[in-house]
Design goal:
about 400 residues, alpha/beta, six-stranded mixed beta sheet
């Protein structure tokens, strides 16, 4: 049995009932981006039924889908990458990971500086592109790394690749990761944010690396690994799970690279899971309130996924497409949004036009894959499988 799970990072499908507890303004990423663009053209995801899960301008509600379609609610506390992906694999956070809207504690910053042998710049909530323009020149003169955070549970460290080489930046991040543990300081991710260029024209590179906490409980990935099945990670998946349960990992440059690698890996997978994250929606457009760019990226990825969908439909595959949270670029803030996410399923052995409704938890993904991959007895996590609803008799 072979499964592909593709996460369209931040492509939310409307505010959850408790969104106001998390968001200054509730988001509807797909709906609002579609309205901003005057309608989206996404014929391939439309074929999977994405237009049937809500009011998404340009996408038909009345076309039969080639597989199953619906949306999922998040049970975990929070609205970030870590919580979303962990829940998909069967670990539901009961308490939100810590955030630092006023910056990290002074005592921690002093200890961190001593540990890395350098002073630091920043230590406040900021956009990554904004902070390197603001502090980049002084960073180049002083050699001090730039630290910052966001509304998410992250500790980010930016450095020019010619000032602090990438390998050294990674070492600094590993020190931060070792220090940022426990209930009070244990952020979900420490993120290396290397950049290049000259003052006034700095740009971030593709050498980003996430240093995550290990999941707080056993995941479906652990179960698959114990069963001897392949778990191939594409994009930042391995980072999110701190490498646990991953048999093979492939770094990607962008959405196009991630889609191409997924397609290529489908020829190599013998039994198990290809788990892909396409991050550009969130990183390049959601966090920058670039609704036009977000819409263009959606239409581009729709085209990139056409051969993946075609391959899945031509053989005994299960292809799942979903998201981990929202990041509505039309709302005033630049942070993630607490939203429902789409869940689309297709494959050669999957029934057509099955309405999956509103699933209670992202962990239904884990339960479904466990059933599909024949490890349902070994998987001990939460979630309700919908595999029985979509598989052909």
């Amino acid at each position: 049995m072979k499964t592909v799970l593709i996460v369209l990072d931040s492509v939310g499908a409307g505010a959850l009932p408790d969104a106001l507890e998390y968001d200054p303004e509730p988001g509807n990423t797909l709906g609002n981006v579609a309205r901003f663009a005057g309608g989206l053209k996404m014929p391939n995801l439309e074929k999977l039924g994405i237009g049937k899960i809500g009011d998404i301008a340009g996408l038909a509600k009345d076309k039969p889908a080639v597989g199953g379609f619906g949306k999922m609610a998040e049970q975990a506390k929070g609205k970030d990458t870590t919580a979303g992906h962990w829940e998909m694999m069967g670990v539901i956070l009961k308490k939100a990971l810590p955030t630092f809207p006023q910056g990290f504690p002074y005592d921690f910053i002093l200890a961190f500086q001593e540990a890395i042998g350098r002073q630091t710049l920043g230590n406040f909530v900021a956009s990554g592109t904004e902070i390197i323009q603001r502090y980049g020149e002084y960073h180049m003169e002083s050699g001090c790394p730039i630290v910052y955070t966001s509304a998410d549970s992250v500790f980010q460290i930016a450095a020019h690749e010619e000032v602090i080489p990438v390998y050294e930046l990674y070492r600094i991040c590993e020190i931060a990761r070792d220090m940022l543990q426990g209930e009070e300081l244990g952020v979900g991710r420490v993120i290396a944010r290397p950049f290049i260029g000259e003052p006034g024209s700095f740009t971030r590179t593709a050498n980003r690396k996430d240093f995550s906490l290990s999941p707080t409980g056993p995941t479906l990935l652990d179960t698959l690994a114990r069963a001897g099945q392949q778990v191939i990670a594409v994009g930042k998946i391995s980072d999110i799970f701190n490498g646990r349960g991953i048999s093979e990992s492939h770094h990607t440059e962008n959405n196009a690279d991630g889609a191409r690698r997924t397609l290529d890996l489908m020829d190599r997978l013998q039994e198990g899971l290809i788990f892909t994250n396409l991050v550009d929606f969130d990183m390049l457009y959601g966090h920058r309130n670039n609704a036009a760019g977000y819409a263009q990226a959606l239409e581009e990825v729709d085209g990139l996924l056409a051969p993946v969908i075609e391959k899945a439909l031509a053989d005994d595959w299960l292809l799942l497409v979903t998201a981990d949270h929202g990041n509505d670029p039309t709302t005033p803030d630049t942070d993630h949004n607490r939203e429902y996410v789409p869940v689309l399923a297709c494959g050669g052995a999957i029934r057509a036009n099955v309405n999956l409704g509103v699933r209670e938890s992202f962990s239904d993904i884990a339960a479904t894959i466990a059933r599909r991959q024949g490890v349902a007895e070994e998987y001990r996590g939460p979630g309700k499988s919908f595999y029985e609803l979509i598989k052909k008799a």
